[in-house]
Fold this sequence. Notes:
It contains two helices and no strands. The protein is an all-alpha fold.
Amino acid sequence: MKDKSSNSVGRPYLPPEKKRKVRSIKMSDQEWEEIRSRAAAETMSVSMYIRKKALWSD
Length: 58
């Protein structure tokens, strides 16, 4: 079998500790739209906005 890190086609290989997995949370449509609006105002994805607020906010 080939080493995954030498594959030049497709997405770059990430080690397991850097891979992200889908997680889900519950929120209302109104809450989701507010998050989408705030993320857009900061020109970032909703996922990055949520990570930023959850992990790096005071």
